[in-house]
């Protein structure tokens, strides 16, 4: 009897060892892809910034940072304020809306979900322009200020925490809230149970909005708010100094690093984990939910309808709409195809990275999140020049001189974001299910395919959407790496924007928005139908 | 019971992959293999163009149709957000992909010349172009020019009250009513560098201090200046001829003044075309440069909505724009102006509080 037990233990440990190796290989492959595509371009630029004019090693580019003057400090402070302000505002708006979408029972839910995601696909610059046209003359003191910029960016980006909250709540157990509701009022349940449940994903969304807001310089430029990002941009566009530009990006990266560490430390790993279940406890059908619905309606009008009306009224002045649309056909097709391929590849890598991060058992795994955020915060131009340096070489022409290089850009820019979000989602899935399956003898690929993936499916679809939207609108890196020939719709719009009447630009912006909305509408309808049949 | 990822293994393998990348051939070492490749049956040429696409595309498509040479184009624009094709060319310096660079203003071309990105080529077609628009060393040749202009709202400002000189913009009468694009970028960076080169530091610093005191509005780009003036948010602004023309064609209430026609002179910005050093198709590149420098292209750019001013005499000027011979161009040493860009950028950051 004793020897039988020993034998089975031995067999089990042998299986575990094999699993670990196989799993290790998959993790390693994802880590290598992440390293080569996302980390190396940044590493290349950092190396470049350590070479002085004579081609020797030197810290000349960083010496200017020592003389960081009050003007630059002010700019950095503005950027940090903008980042924190916009991230906080978008979280305050997005989390209740996500809660409503996940737990509320109300009419036209699909329409609301679709409508409330729309601001994310409106280019922030267009958004700001609409608001200037609407309010610039009425309350210039507010619009042309840091507060105005925070308001506009917060309204642009709230769909991120909203989607994150909804996806997170769909993956967690309503019974915890149910049990708590027996003893505590709803607000307390929300604060003590619901929020901690969604904390990892919401904090990831907070950091993404922070990074996006700090990276934005089109909107602050339009609203005459000076930000630090323009410093980096000046080094590229006015001084053509790659080394100095990279060195100047370092202080902004440090601010992002501080934000990421701050958030990681607040959230920690003390998150609640529950089993996935479709029932929803904190059912928002009455009382406070009406208030949230009303607020949602106002946000919807403010963020979607008003800019859309402004754009439409401009676009209707156009002389020849059909020519604008027809001439953009190839760019639209390219954009849809490249963004879809890019988003799919990014997700394939990030699911593994996110899983590895979610399941890593050390006390330092939050560092992975910090790395993801900091890499994502590297200015797109720095990434673009880094990609050219790495990929424009013998043997890689096939990639560099073709559209594939644009997908390389998407992988470089967006793998960290996707890994950050998916890591948060994986952490919500209880590990005990996987353990149970492992003890029952299931192999790791089987566990991953049959348990992990179905559990994070909602998260994967949501993240794919976000990455698709990001890729569709990507400009900074694409402009630099794009090969000759028709590239993407944003590049097309951008390269004709200066000398095209505002009406045509508005029509093209509407075109861009509607083409991102197509897959969005499809996915949302498909998911709702699937849920109903289920 | 959580599985610990084997970090040590990961880091070790990452280290190995980093090393293998670091030890790989640096960019450009295999240049010769690419350049010596056998000529393809179908000739092609690659051009990077920063002149706005709406204007440059028809010209390049016509060339393609008439010669049968395939023209691969990368477009860009000078709007603020662009980091410019100059950065792409600089990054590709060791392994160039482009044969020709067609720039819509002088500064970038001169930066590229300084960085060894360009090759000298004196086109026989450049004969009718005045000498001050050609590089004595042959690294660039100018053609069809734009000008910096003062744009004003015709509903708010009468033609005889419009400012005639950029120095008028410091008059308290225009307080809070002047918009200019960020002087660190695009054609405005050329304009301010040219002013410093012409006026000297003291006078130029003084001018910008007064402009700042007059509450000048600094906006992201020249098209934003134009749109603000057209909407009446400000009465006047500094922008480019082609930007104003878009508004004129769109029947917006704007008009333009060529500033300082008699005193300082009008700041003229020619297009510049250059051959790329170690270009993959140098012969096709030279042929395309010859075509771009033809009187025919100057005529087309003048008659298009680009309203570009021909540098040759005898080519008809665009409507709404006086011929080059009718005003005094700012006597510009383009190299001298371009050399000032970096220093002027830093000065203006302080003076204008950018």
Number of domains of chain B: 2
- The structural domain count of chain A equals 2
- Please mark out the parts of chain B with pLDDT under 50 across 5 or more consecutive residues, or reply none: 1-39
Distance between the termini of chain B: 55 Å
CATH superfamily of the largest domain in chain B, called what? Answer: Periplasmic binding protein-like II
Helix segment tally of chain A: 25
Q: Name the helicity range of chain A.
A: over 70%
Largest sheet of chain A: none
Total number of helical segments of chain B? Answer: 12
Task: Determine the N-to-C terminus distance of chain A.
Answer: 47 Å
Of all chain pairs, the largest interface belongs to: A-B, 67 and 80 residues
Quickly give the CATH architecture of the largest domain in chain B.
3-Layer(aba) Sandwich
What share of the residues of chain A does DSSP label as strand, in percent? under 5%
Could you tell me the radius of gyration of chain B in angstroms? Answer: 23 Å
| Helix and strand composition category of chain A | mainly alpha
Based on the coordinates given, report the CATH architecture of the largest domain in chain A. Answer: Orthogonal Bundle
Order of helices and strands of chain A: HHHHHHHHHHHHHHHHHHHHHHHHH
Strand content of chain B: 15-25%
By DSSP, the count of extended strands of chain A is: 0
């Amino acid at each position: 009897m004793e020897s039988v037990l020993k034998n089975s233990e031995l067999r089990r440990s042998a299986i575990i060892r094999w699993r670990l190796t196989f799993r290790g290989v998959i993790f390693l492959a994802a880590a290598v892809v992440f390293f080569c595509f996302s980390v190396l371009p940044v590493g290349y630029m950092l190396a470049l910034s350590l070479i002085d004019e004579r081609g020797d090693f030197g810290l000349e580019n960083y010496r200017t940072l020592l003389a960081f003057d009050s003007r630059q400090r002010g700019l950095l402070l503005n950027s940090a304020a903008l980042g924190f302000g916009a991230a906080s505002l978008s979280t305050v708006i997005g989390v209740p809306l996500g809660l409503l979408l996940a737990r509320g029972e109300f009419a036209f839910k699909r329409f609301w979900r679709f409508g409330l995601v729309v601001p994310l696909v409106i280019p922030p610059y267009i958004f700001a322009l609409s608001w200037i046209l609407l309010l610039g003359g009425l309350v210039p003191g507010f619009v042309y200020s840091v507060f105005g910029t925070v308001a506009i960016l917060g309204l642009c980006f709230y769909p991120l925490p909203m989607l994150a909250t909804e996806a997170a709540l769909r993956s967690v157990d309503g019974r915890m809230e149910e049990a708590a509701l027996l003893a505590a009022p709803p607000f307390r349940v929300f604060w003590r149970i619901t929020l901690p449940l969604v904390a990892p994903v919401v904090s990831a969304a907070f950091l993404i909005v922070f990074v996006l807001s700090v990276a934005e310089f089109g909107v602050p430029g339009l609203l005459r708010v000076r930000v630090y990002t323009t410093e980096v941009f000046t080094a590229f566009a006015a001084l053509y100094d790659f080394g100095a530009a990279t060195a100047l990006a370092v202080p902004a990266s440090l601010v992002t690093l501080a934000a990421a560490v701050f958030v990681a430390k607040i959230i920690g790993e003390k998150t609640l984990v529950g089993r996935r279940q479709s029932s929803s406890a904190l059912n928002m059908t009455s009382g406070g939910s009406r208030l949230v619905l009303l607020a949602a309606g106002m946000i919807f009008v403010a963020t979607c309808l008003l800019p859309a009306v402004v754009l439409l009224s401009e676009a209707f002045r156009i002389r020849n709409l059909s020519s604008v649309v027809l001439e953009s056909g190839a760019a639209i097709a390219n954009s849809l195809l490249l963004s879809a391929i890019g988003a799919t590849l990014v997700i394939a890598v990030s699911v593994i990275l996110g899983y590895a991060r979610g399941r890593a058992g050390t006390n330092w795994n939050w560092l992975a999140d910090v790395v993801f955020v900091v890499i994502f915060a590297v200015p797109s131009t720095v990434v673009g020049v880094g990609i050219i340096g790495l990929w424009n070489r013998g043997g890689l022409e096939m990639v560099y001189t073709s559209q594939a290089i644009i997908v390389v850009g998407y992988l470089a820019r967006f793998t960290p974001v996707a890994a950050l979000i998916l890591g948060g989602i994986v952490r919500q899935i209880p590990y005990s299910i996987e353990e149970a399956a492992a003890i029952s003898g299931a192999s790791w690929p089987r566990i991953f395919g049959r348990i992990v993936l179905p559990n994070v499916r909602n998260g994967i679809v949501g993240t794919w959407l976000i990455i698709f939207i990001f890729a569709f609108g990507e400009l900074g890196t694409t402009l630099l790496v794009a090969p000759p020939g028709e590239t993407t719709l944003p590049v097309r719009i951008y390269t004709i924007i200066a000398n095209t009447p505002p009406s045509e630009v508005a029509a093209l912006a509407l075109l861009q928005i509607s083409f991102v909305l197509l897959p969005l509408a499809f996915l949302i309808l498909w998911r709702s139908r699937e849920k109903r049949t289920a | 019971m959580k599985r610990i990822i084997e970090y040590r293994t990961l880091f070790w393998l990452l280290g190995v992959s980093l090393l293998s990348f670091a030890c790989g051939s640096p960019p450009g070492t295999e240049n010769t293999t690419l350049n010596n490749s056998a000529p393809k049956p179908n000739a092609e040429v690659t051009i990077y163009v920063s002149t706005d696409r709406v204007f440059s595309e028809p010209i390049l498509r016509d060339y393609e149709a008439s010669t049968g040479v395939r023209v691969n184009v990368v477009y860009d624009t000078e709007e603020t957000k662009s980091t410019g094709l100059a950065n792409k060319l600089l990054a590709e310096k060791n392994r160039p992909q482009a044969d020709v660079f067609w720039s819509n203003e002088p500064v970038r071309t001169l930066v590229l010349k300084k960085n060894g990105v360009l090759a000298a080529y004196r086109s026989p077609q450049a004969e009718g172009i005045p000498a001050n628009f050609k590089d004595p060393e042959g690294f660039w040749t100018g053609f069809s020019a734009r000008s910096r202009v003062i744009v004003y709202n015709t509903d708010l400002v009468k033609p005889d009250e419009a400012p005639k000189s950029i120095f008028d913009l410091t008059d308290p009468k225009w307080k809070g009513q002047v918009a200019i694009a960020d002087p660190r970028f695009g054609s405005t960076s050329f304009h301010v560098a040219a002013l410093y080169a012409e006026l000297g530091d003291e006078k130029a610093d003084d001018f910008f201090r007064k402009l700042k005191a007059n509450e000048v509005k600094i906006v992201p780009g020249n098209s934003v200046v134009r749109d603000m003036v057209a909407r009446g948010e400000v009465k006047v602004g500094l922008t480019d001829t082609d930007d104003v023309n878009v508004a004129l064609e769109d029947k917006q209430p704007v008009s333009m003044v060529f500033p300082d026609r008699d005193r300082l002179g009008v700041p003229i910005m020619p297009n510049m075309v250059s051959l790329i050093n170690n270009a993959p198709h140098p012969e096709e590149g030279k042929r395309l440069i010859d075509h771009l420098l033809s009187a025919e292209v100057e005529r087309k750019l003048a008659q298009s909505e680009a309203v570009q001013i021909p540098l040759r005499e005898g080519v008809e000027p665009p409507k709404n724009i006086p011929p080059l011979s009718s005003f005094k161009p700012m006597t510009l040493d383009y190299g001298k102006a371009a050399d000032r860009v970096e220093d002027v950028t830093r000065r203006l950051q302080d003076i204008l509080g950018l």
